[in-house]
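SEVERITY: medium
COMPONENT: batch folding queue
REPORTER: lab tech (J.R.)

DESCRIPTION
The queue accepted two submissions in a row. Attaching both inputs and their returned structure tokens so the on-call engineer can compare them side by side.

ATTACHMENT 1
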Amino acid sequence: MNTTSSAARADRVWSRQALLVLEREALRSADTHLLRLDFPGFPDVAFYFKDEAAHPSGSLKHRLARSLYLYALCNGRLHEGQEVVDASSGSTAISEAWFARLLGLHFTAVMPASTAPGKIRELRALGAHCDLVEDASRTRERVAEHVARGACGLDQFGLAERATDWRGNNNIAESIHRQLSRETHSEPAWIVCGAGTGGTSATIGRYLRYRRLETGLCVAEPTGGAFATGWHRRDRQACASQPTLVEGIGRARVEPCFLFDVVDAVEEVDDAASFAGAWLLREITGYRYGGSSGTNLVACLRLAAAMREVGQGGAIVSLLCDRGERYDDTLFAPAWLAAHGIDLAPWCASLRACIDGHAPHPDP
């Protein structure tokens, strides 16, 4: 005898419909471009940058947000009319808000009050509520308060590495592998990414091993970030030794999804270098990207310089993480840079000289 209540049956009907909505969205979404850049200073190294900012919600977190909603639905945690909440410094929240609107749900982003104003404006335009916290260490506590009142916590920091299918299903690693299949260097020497939740590095690192590839995985991290500190010591209790102004990466503590053992190298990059890298990407590509993309560029150039020193050729792949328009009021605003004591000139000159072959490495 079927003893399922009518309310439970109605919830299953809504859940199936929500899953169908997400499946249709995935089928409508084209893959992101893998851009090739060739630099005079590195004639034997091909640089590829995967433009994740091209997603409808404007960042690589579009993939993660879809996966988190699928995970919540398939685990029976997300129901019709339920509030959705997560802690985020911006880009994940924007992608989660985008999907919440698609599913007809209300989304609340718990975020530091210091988050770039452009991200806050974008969230509010999507109909989300921004719960701004002055003390960033209290964001998890604030999320727990929302969950206690009945909200569904998507929990990007706790679930990112398990919500994404690392063996395939058009994850970012499989997409890169497929797009490189006809290139001269179809198996790159390195893939470079940042670590925010740790989900992207976990997915890429696992996939590289699953496909038996020789490609190394490098995490590009703000100087003194928790991932770098923890990775060097294999210490999951490690905390950042200094704060960063680069949003989205450089966590204050080791997050649950940080997998040290699938990472082959960590490059620590100063904030000024990251922002100079973002400005340089605008010159190179004609488009603006956020500070974490600049961090990735600097790490790529360092790896390429090391390859050049030993006469090694090949390819390096990295990510363009989110739209630079979100940072009009911060890293692309000279007054904001000056207020934070950041001088881009030495780094911009050094990065350009390295790319043009006039300097052996990208550091001033």
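ATTACHMENT 2
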Amino acid sequence: MNERRVTLADVAAKAGVHVTTVSLAIRNHPRLPEKTRLRIQKLATEMGYAPDPFLRALVSYRVRNTPRRNPPTIAYVSNWATRWGWKKVTAHPQFFAGAQAAAKDMGFNLEHFWMREPGLTQGRLSHILYSRGIKGVIIASHGREMGDALQFDWANFSAVKIDYFPHQPALHNVTNNQLDIARLAIQKVMAAGYKRIGFVMHRGWDHAVDHLWTAGCLCEQQMLPAGERIPAYLFPTSQPVDHWLNEGKPETEPESGAFAKWLEKYKPEVIVSKASFVLPVFKKLGLRVPKDIAFVDLFLEDFKGETAGVRQNHETVGALAVEILAGQLQYNKFGIPKIPTTTYVEGTWFDGASCPPR
């Protein structure tokens, strides 16, 4: 016969406090003094108390389905050259849309804050969020040229980062699994019978994902004979770092002359890249897809079957950021985590006429 589950009331009776006090202590609520929280948490552990997952699910369901007059706000913090510039860049609008939908579903209000408002400093924004009672922060759409560290009063916030920048502080992170997305694309290309595989990527974009695209490309190339391995083409090829680092600038494409020389030298059968990077250059060079060269899109947005590639599922990234943040807020976990975690979202492969089997 199973022993009776230890309840909050049991812990409260043993501790000589109200049930509400035990509930706050278990959730690590800052309303209670740290000494009181630790004492009750230690007692609950000794008594064998464990939360009821079914009861928690019921409470979560009721919260989601009960309209709130004043829903709590989650801050969606961007640091781009302009307030809405990130909406014109691949992935970032979908990150926001996914986060917004998940926030609404979970009973939160998602509000955008732009770090480069005139006169706004990082310290002042941190103070504004705290003053408004905003405890949850999503750090997203942070241009890689904007600096690599954020100076917030992190002890006041639960925070989750979308994508790789800024690197500091080391927060819990949600992003696309760019390493495996590149590997998936090349694996599918190999399975279709192609051997000479060209990988083309903007140098700044590869830098923005900590070089995981080129890492995935190099990993899969080890499966090919040495004579069939083609070095990745990263462009711009000769310009200084400050030219290609700025993510706020419009998308660019390889310089057709240098790209044509690379094509002539290595003679790839298929190009794995982003459509806006290479298709305009193919047109300039008179190359037809797939008759002259096959093509796979790492950022597939057209699912009609004309183009082969990988859908990156950006909306899922934004939604997961909110879900992870909500869990942090539920247990009042504030500050920089001792052990930050990264949650990767996989890509989805789609066959297409641009890369037919050989």
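NOTES FROM REPORTER
The chain has 13 helices and twelve strands.
No errors were logged for either attachment.
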